[in-house]
Amino acid sequence: MSLKIKDLPEENLFTKGHTACPGCGGAIMAKIAMKVFGKNTCAYFPANCLLVFGGTYPLNAFKVPYLHVLFENSAVCAAGIKRALNKLGKEDVNVVAFAGDGGTADIGIQALSGAAERNEDIIYICYDNEAYMNTGIQRSGSTPFGAWTTTTPVGSKIAGKERFKKDVPRIMIAHDVPYVATASISYPLDLLKKLEKVKNMKGFRYLQIFAPCPTGWRLDPSKTVEIGKLAVESGMWTLYEFENGKMTINKKPKMIPVREYLKPQGRFRHLTDEQIDILQELVKKKWERDLAMAESTH
Amino acid sequence: MYEVRFHGRGGQGAVMAAQSLADAAFIEGNYAVAFPYFGAERRGAPVLAFARVDANKIYRKTQIYKPDYVIVLDDKLIDLINVAEGLSKDGMAILNSTKKPEEIQLENEVRTATVDATTIALDVLGVPITNSVMLGAFAKATGLVKIESIEKGIMDIFGARIGERIAKKNAKAARTAYERTAIGTCKGGRIFKKEKKWLPTYKELPLGLATRAMKTDAGLVGPGSFVENKTGSWRTFKPIIDKEKCIECLFCWFYCPEGCISRTSNGLKIDYDYCKGCGICANECPANAIEMVR
Ligand SMILES: Cc1ncc(C[n+]2csc(CCOP(=O)(O)OP(=O)(O)O)c2C)c(N)n1
Ligand code: SF4
Ligand code: SF4
Ligand SMILES: [Mg+2]
Fold first, then answer.
1. What does the alpha-carbon distance between residue A145 and residue A165 come to, in Å, rounded to a whole number?
2. Beta-bridge partners for A22
3. A74 C-alpha vs ligand 2 centroid, how far in Å?
4. Rounded CA gap, B192 and B80, in Å?
């Protein structure tokens, strides 16, 4: 039986009182992940919003052992702790790194790749809000094409990011680790299934969770969950999992026009019809590639 | 020289207000600087910004501890922190409040101006962002800058950041506030408790600085201690659950970023001490059982 919303415990191991912006997708991710992982968990955080809004010394929202590690080395710190716990005979502890997209796609990628290649027995969660939010919205490798950030400003020559989003899950699949999956805070059952899977598996597990940031996306905070659904329906974000060499698409996108997804977000307000066409084409290509990859593994 | 301290919340644009005021004063031939207090604050958390204006060049670079004026963008802050801390006794407090100046109580009796900035912002801008509104109140209350210069300052600073169309609306919001500001004197004698801080000696610190969950004189510290931080005052709109309509699907309970909705034997219950009013619960409720009210 897969996990349902009503089966989740009432207690929050990521408590209220945290200082995330109203409507933060990252906070939803943290709350739900901790409900699934439970008390027998150690959490590792490089610098990111979640680290800062989850704790300002000596206050802390996490009710489990919690450590701030360097931006570059979350995966390897988690791996080291896991090995130490094993030596102490505490083999059943979930060791989880919670990193942002900047800390994953760019700054922590060497440690991540190394830990994956060694098949370290850890859970690595990337909550993807598509920019460096904690420092005030700078572009990351994970920022999508066309998006405004403070480092991809809108001017007469360049308007928003010129490159498409770096496909980190695909890089992780290339490591042939036991489990790689994409999820979203807006798809509860799919998210719960994947969180439970990573909790119960062994070896290196990578989960990238789409976690909209109303502040950085210039979005009405009440629309955080809604925009996550539009991302999947438009094909901007695909939900799939790669397990023991097989890739499965969990939700076939309806392929609604990307325009519908872009419209509520201020970060895309400047896009011209031509740019939207480019983005639509990129989305179509990405979906075809994901689908082909899934088919080729079955 | 006069010095102004702005109290707001992250996202309310205290910094842009300080910059616009400096710009307005500069237009009138003064020297002026504006700068924020940098912390880890996010949208909703209390923040500070400062402006300093003088006819001569300004060499002072510090934060402002003894302001001549304080401008408070958020109506709930007056009850949470001592906004008048260090305020000169000849100074003035300019507050976002639905109350008359005489109904306000601060640390000392000082000249006070009030304006219902949240309502003006919602009417004119459609969002509860009160930075431009409070500048109109400042112009009226102090007479130090002309409202026309404030409007020009807003067009410069807001125009560059968020475009001319919205800047115009903000200039209008400032003008509206200018017309509706009440001036008087507040009551003094309000006592604010000094927030206690946990300051352990090195001998008391646990090995490796790891903090365990502990109860100290200053409250909880360590894992799970963030419950000490009540975030309910961040809210502008408040969700109300209609028990008759609620089908207990638990979507609001799942999605609430604060985790402040709980399941009880008497249905779902919102803890308003923490609810930040994001509106996700109302937006996601399939039964339309949650309404956001002011
Ligand atoms: C080596 C290093 N470079 C830069 C920083 C500053 N910094 C802290 S958090 C952050 C942004 C993190 O972005 P991301 O990983 O995407 O997480 P988010 O804040 O968006 O959730 C940056 C650049 C740092 N702490 N360490
Ligand atoms: S900036 Fe974005 S990710 Fe960071 S706390 Fe605010 S909403 Fe969350
Ligand atoms: S408005 Fe936001 S913070 Fe308040 S109960 Fe609803 S989801 Fe939670
Ligand atoms: Mg990020």
1. 6
2. none
3. 20
4. 9
Outline where chain A has alpha helix (H). 25-37, 49-53, 74-87, 101, 109-117, 168-173, 188-200, 214-217, 224-234, 258-262, 273-296
Q: CA A20, CA B14: separation in Å to the nearest integer?
A: 19
The ipTM is 0.96
Residues of B in contact with A16 (CB under 8 A): 226-227, 231, 258-260, 271, 274
Please give the single-letter amino acid code of residue A248.
Answer: T
Dihedrals phi, psi of B115, to nearest 5 degrees: -150, 145
- pTM score, whole prediction: 0.89
Q: Are strands A94-100 and A41-45 parallel, antiparallel or unpaired?
A: parallel
Is the CB of A24 inside a 6 Å radius of any atom of ligand 2?
A: yes
> Quick one: average pLDDT of B266-282?
97
Buried b / exposed e along A134-165 (16+ C-beta atoms within 10 A): beebbbbbbbbbbbbbeebeeeeeebbbeebb
User: Which of B92, B158, B86, B88 has its CA nearest to residue B125?
Assistant: B158
Residues of chain B numbered 23-82 and touching chain A (CB < 8 Å): 40-45
Indicate the residue type of A73: N
For the record, the structure tokens of B20 come out as: 């616009």
Name the CA radius of gyration of chain A, rounded. 18
Report phi then psi at A221, rounded to 5. Answer: -60, -25
**Average pLDDT rounded to a whole number, residues B258-281:** 96
Q: What angle do CA A82, A87, A89 make, to 5 degrees?
A: 95
Which of A211-215, B209-213, B218-222 shows the highest mean pLDDT?
A211-215
Does residue A142 contact residue A102 with C-beta atoms inside 8 Å? Answer: yes
Q: Is B239 in the pocket of ligand 3 (CB under 6 A)?
A: yes
Find out whether the beta carbon of B235 lies less than 6 Å from any atom of ligand 3: no
**HSE-CB of A249 using CA atoms within 13 angstroms:** 18
| Domains in chain B, CATH or no CATH each | 2-185 (3.40.920.10), 230-293 (3.30.70.20)
| Residue predicted with more confidence, B23 or B42 | B23
* A97 three-class SS: strand
List ligand 1's pocket residues with C-beta within 6 A. A 26, 47-50, 71, 100-103, 107, 129, 131-135, 140
- The domains found in chain A, sorted by start residue, are 13-296 (3.40.50.970)
Nearest to B175 by CA among B142, B156, B195, B149: B149
Decide: residue B134, CB within 10 A, 0-12 exposed, 13-18 middle, 19+ buried.
Answer: buried
Rounded to whole angstroms, the Cα distance separating A137 from A124 reads 23
Considering all CA atoms of chain B, what is the largest pairwise distance in Å, rounded to the nearest integer? 67
A265-281 pLDDT, tens per residue? 999 999 999 999 999 99
Closest CA to A253 of A278, A236, A265: A236
